[in-house]
Automatic annotation (TrEMBL):
Signal peptide location: none
Segments crossing the lipid bilayer: 61-80, 86-105, 141-160, 199-222, 228-249, 326-345, 411-433, 445-467, 503-525
Keyword line: Membrane, Transmembrane, Transmembrane helix
DNA damage recorded as keyword: no
Keyword Transmembrane assigned: yes
Protein name as annotated: ABC-2 type transport system permease protein
């Protein structure tokens, strides 16, 4: 196995050197002065290979620092700056992100975009087991080294004990090996890669994110300080990791995994694979289209684009409703959790009521996440507009405004379903807390929830018509679209720490929603005939 690792490292080293030279040749002004003969110069290539390796390590440190800083330290600081217990919240977020989400979405063995694995196994004929195991050990070791300095630096800044930081690093290393074992078990049972299984991975991520950030926001604490550093738990994690490594090393079917996972399409056309993944959740399965869906007689009384849109939303209703169902089920699950929690711990009712009173700005971020507007726009483009946009009549102002008005109503209705369920769930929690008298004073709160659902519905459709970010090949080609979405995201995230009265907040949300709707309609009518077209 050591020989396989050395060979793969040498091949990767040479490829990285060539890639670095190729990158330099593409730089403006400087690139033209770099001769092609550098590809043959062993000494120069060695220098560039070493330089590239060093830069990769430095990049790894920065990535780890950004991950710990932005995803863990910053939220923990913002949540606890007024009430303390930074370390407890830090560990809560760290646990659910690194111990739960990480092993699910990240695997050294099942990395479908690993070009080096494709080259070494399929082209260089390396033993699949030896390569994948050596690659796993190397990658896990490097990732822990990358995380060491940032974690210790943040530990010094926020006065986290050095020994505790060291234990966290050791535990996360053990957990990652256990994660590889779980990935293999899942693949053995289902013949699918866990990270590519949408329902399971999405549920794990959403639930873990809620537990990571939601519990501290709700003042619900899990004493990870007294859990993660217990010698018993450290020994248990070590034993699980040891047994996992034994299983991983004894596993025999790596060759079959390599044949299925490391395929040309994923390696050489990652954008195509990415596009298929992005649009697969809005693609209509023609094999499952029955006579009922094809029967359009129920819309005989409709004409023109009303007829077109009615058929579209009817035939694609499962695509539209599925994410709504997931959101509703998730809200109901959280409701059951809270009701059970309040029944078991009735003394926490006053604390929950206080949080609800000041949680209105948090609803901005929650409603942003819950909005299905972007998914519906993808479905409309992929299954309808990509074909019709080739014709000039479909881009006329009247046509665009007619379609926009119909579609915005549908999207608003869809997004109002989870919003109403959320609103009713909050009412139930208030009633369980024995504060039915507060329901009347909470009307502005509930109105703001409905307004936010409408706002995000309008925003996504407005951006779709005014920017139209998709190409005929189903790729996203619009920096402005990405920037605008990022701005909305950061505004929503900023609102997590916004403090104001329920009444004034509702007035603000209502005014912004009405103004945004008017502006969206006017700009869509004026700009969309020029911008609503296929990107080249």
């Amino acid at each position: 196995m050591l020989k396989t690792f050395i060979n793969s490292f040498n091949v990767s080293f040479a490829q990285n050197a060539n890639s670095f030279i190729f990158f330099l040749k593409r730089l403006p002004l400087v690139g033209k002065k770099i001769p092609d003969r550098l590809y043959k110069e062993t000494g120069i290539k060695t220098f560039f290979g070493v330089l590239n390796t060093i830069l990769k390590f430095i990049g790894g440190f920065f990535k780890a620092a950004l991950y710990i800083g932005i995803m863990i330290v910053l939220p923990a600081y913002l949540i606890t700056k007024d009430k303390g217990d930074f370390y407890g919240v830090f560990l809560n977020i760290y646990f659910f992100l690194s111990f739960i989400i990480g092993p699910v979405i990240k695997s050294s063995i099942f990395d479908i975009t690993n070009k080096e694995a494709y080259d070494m196994i399929n082209l260089m004929r390396c033993d699949a087991k030896e390569y994948l195991l050596s690659h796993m050990i190397y990658e896990k070791t490097v990732s822990i080294i990358n995380m060491t300095i940032p974690l210790f630096i943040f530990g010094l800044i926020f006065k986290i004990a050095f020994l505790n930081s060291l234990i966290l690093l050791i535990e996360i290393l053990f957990v990652r090996y256990t994660g590889e074992f779980l990935q293999l078990i899942f693949y053995n049972k289902t013949k699918k890669v866990l990270a590519q299984t949408k329902i399971i991975s999405t549920l794990v991520i959403l639930i873990s994110l809620f537990l990571a950030y939601g519990l501290p926001l709700l003042n619900i604490s899990i004493s990870f300080q007294h859990i993660l550093f217990r010698p018993f738990l450290v020994c248990l994690i070590f034993i699980l990791a040891f047994l996992s490594v034994v299983y991983v090393f004894k596993y025999r079917n790596y060759k079959l995994i390599a044949k299925k996972v490391f395929v040309k399409e994923n390696i050489f056309n990652p954008e195509t694979a990415k596009v298929k993944m992005q649009f697969s959740n809005v693609e209509l399965n023609e094999k499952r289209v029955g006579k009922e869906l094809l029967d359009s007689s129920r819309f005989d009384k409709k004409q023109g684009y009303d007829y077109l849109n009615s058929i579209f939303f009817y035939r694609h209703r499962k695509i539209m409703i599925y994410p709504i169902k997931i959101r509703v089920y998730l809200i109901l699950a959280i409701l059951v959790f809270f009701v059970g929690y309040l029944v078991i711990f009735p003394g926490e009712k006053s604390g929950v009521l206080k949080y609800i009173d000041r949680s209105q700005p948090v609803m901005v971020f929650i409603l942003y996440i819950m909005s299905t507007g972007e998914r519906v726009c993808k479905a409309m483009f992929h299954n309808c507009d990509v074909s019709l946009l080739r014709y000039g009549f479909y881009r006329e102002s009247k046509t665009i405004l007619s379609n926009f008005n119909y579609r915005v109503k549908k999207i608003i209705l869809l997004n109002l379903i989870p919003a109403v369920v959320l609103m009713i769930s909050i009412m139930v929690v208030i009633l369980v807390c024995g504060a039915s008298g507060r329901l009347f004073s909470m009307i502005p709160y509930f109105v703001s929830i409905l307004c936010l659902a409408c706002f995000f519905s309008i925003h996504h459709l407005f951006m779709y018509y005014v920017v139209q970010p998709y190409t005929a090949e189903l790729t996203v080609k619009s920096p402005f679209y990405k920037i605008s979405n990022a701005i909305i995201y950061f505004i929503s995230y900023f609102c997590l720490n916004f403090k104001t009265s329920s009444f004034y907040f509702t007035i603000g949300v209502l005014v912004v929603t009405i103004l945004y709707t008017i502006i969206a309609i006017l700009l869509t009518y004026k700009l969309a005939p020029k911008t609503f077209k296929l990107k080249e």
